[in-house]
Amino acid sequence: MPKTIVAPEGIGEPIAPYSPGVLADGVLYVSGTLALDANNDVVHPGDAGAQTRHVLETIKLVIETAGGTTEDVTMNHIFISDWANYQAVNKAYAEYFPGDKPARYCLQCGLVRPDALIEIATVAHIGI
Question: Which of the residues 26, 34, 47, 128 has an alpha carbon 20 to 30 A from that of 1?
Answer without folding.
Answer: 34
